Amino acid sequence: MATLHHYPFCPHSRFVRLIFGELGVELSMVEEKPWERRTEFLMLNPAGLVPVLVDEHGLVVPGATVIAEYLDEARAGGLDAMRRLMPQTVADRVEVRRLMEWFHQKFFEEVSGYLVTEKIYKRFMGADAGGGPPDMSAIRAARNNVRYHLKYIGFLAAKRNWLAGAQLTYADLAAAAHLSCADYLGDVPWDEDETAKAWYARIKSRPSFRTLLNDRVPGMAPAAHYADLDF
């Protein structure tokens, strides 16, 4: 069985968990607090970042996008076309990769990275690692930035069945993983885009999402609607 080194509220880790849920593949998980820079973990990934996948043969695969590409190459050959998370044509695959980069980099740098760091990570980090009170200016920036990302998701969802095209892909899982962290914290203004909200409700209702909805930050309850499938 493959092992995932992850942190529950790391959006990149959540993305990989969603992939395994969609593929129906069992996964062993080890929680890592990346700010602790545990020696054994740094031996797996000197960058000190989660997620890191260690497959059944001991191959170490670091990073959300690298893991997604690895799984598409190593696992998808045994799956029927309806369960593939990368489309068949080159043009469609380019679009999925474009949107994965949008959410894993742009959305993370402008929204989810700020929110999880300031509201969650810094609660548990020591002062020497940068812990302490949240930077409210960073949180305000994230809350402002999430609005145009939500509009972009609504724009895509209005034109297509799923964000990248006709089928569910890595693009949807990336967007949902990052949004789910912001949603836990109550920082997604769902009333500003009903199309984006309807898309998120569809993906939130999938079985692969159940474990994410059960995650809790110690001492911090989720937004009231977080686990509500009909929000």
TrEMBL record:
GO terms for biological process: glutathione metabolic process. Gene3D superfamilies: 1.20.1050.10, Glutaredoxin (3.40.30.10). PROSITE patterns: GST_CTER, GST_NTER. Signal peptide: none annotated. Keywords: Transferase. The keyword Transferase applies. It is an enzyme of class 2 (transferase). GO terms for molecular function: glutathione transferase activity. The keyword Lipid biosynthesis does not apply. Its EC number is 2.5.1.18. Homodimer. This is Glutathione S-transferase. It comes from Chelatococcus composti.
